[in-house]
Design goal:
alpha/beta, 12 helices
């Protein structure tokens, strides 16, 4: 005969079974870690407010907002890897010299492309610089990251920016995208991640085909930080590059490019073949010419410019190189 357990006792047994289950215990540990990260991170950022690029931290119910001296605003959540804002909570700034150079060069009415939009650091900057007469096309294929990006664009009233949830590559199609459990940067190649990662199939597009389909206006500036896929972006944007002659800021790091089967020098050589020179931004905010054939690259972000603009961008037209130094990206 089946023995019946009184309802109050049954409810108590279920409650304890759930409390002791491995999944429940793991969830509790994750929640505790996230809460500790949130408390520690907010405390650290409050202490940093007013230093570097950070003007203030506004804490509201359920979220914190980071406000910079230039007026840009970003949601901050140290418990979520997608909203840790790179080095801002650590140093109070992020790629300051490149940021200031982009801010000085962009003008109202220009049209820009941001490949690898992440949480919107450069996308918001571009949007505010080019104004309502200009526009920004932002590419971010990671769904959750794209959601964070769109939230920050809305937060900054960037009505002239459009988010495309696709990756830029050499041709239209589908490719696997690898996203590590730590950090925010996904890649179309599997990097040597120390921790776990997730992989999903994402749509990829060539910039040429998107510009042709959408009848985009002249593109004045392209920024790309896509973990080694920069060369594929260039090959898929050759018509735009030859036609519009945009300035470009591209990341080039051998640790990433080699996963795609090329050295950074190959990217420099390809651009040289279509009439482009290269430079990096010094700590003084000036462009210093380079070739990409140096034994050690002087930086990891590079400005590529049409040769017809060299004299206006780099005084003296020469290759007066400063002492190379290797910068590590945080």
């Amino acid at each position: 005969m089946k023995r019946l357990i009184p309802k109050p006792l049954h409810r108590e047994l279920v409650r304890w079974r759930e409390r002791l289950s491995p999944a429940r215990r793991k969830a509790r540990r994750e929640l505790a870690r996230a809460e500790a990260a949130r408390v520690d991170g907010v405390a650290a950022l409050v202490a940093m407010a007013g230093r570097g690029d950070v003007r203030e931290l506004i804490v509201r119910e359920g979220e914190a907002e980071l406000v910079l001296h230039d007026g840009r605003r970003f949601r901050y959540n140290p418990g979520d890897r997608l909203e840790r804002l790179y080095s801002l909570p650590i140093t109070g700034e992020f790629e300051r010299k490149e940021t200031e150079w982009v801010r000085r060069w962009l003008k109202p009415g220009m049209h820009c492309v941001d490949a690898g939009g992440s949480f919107g650091w450069y996308a918001v900057l571009m949007s505010q610089a080019v104004g309502n007469a200009g526009g920004v096309r932002v590419f971010e294929p990671i769904p959750r990251t794209a959601g964070v990006l769109e939230g920050n664009l809305k937060r900054n009233a960037c009505g002239n920016a459009v988010v495309h949830r696709v990756a830029l590559a050499e041709a239209d199609g589908q490719m696997d995208l690898y996203v590590p459990d730590i950090g925010v940067s996904g890649s179309l190649r599997l990097h040597d991640y120390d921790d776990a990662y997730e992989v999903f199939s994402c749509p990829v597009r060539a910039l040429d085909s998107m510009a042709d389909e959408g009848k985009w206006p002249k593109i004045d500036f392209i920024k790309a930080d896509i973990e080694g896929a920069e060369f594929a972006l260039l090959r898929g944007a050759e018509r735009v590059i030859r036609r519009d002659r945009p300035l470009m800021m591209l990341e080039a790091q051998a640790s990433s490019t080699r996963l795609f089967g090329y050295e950074p020098s190959a990217l420099f050589a390809w651009l040289e073949g279509v009439g482009y020179g290269a430079a990096w931004v010094s700590m003084a905010g000036e462009l210093v010419a380079c070739t990409g054939r140096e034994d050690t690259l002087p930086d990891y972000n590079f400005i590529f410019f049409p040769e017809e603009l060299r004299s206006s961008l780099i005084p003296g037209r020469g290759l007066a190189m400063s002492v190379p130094r290797l910068l590590v990206k945080i």
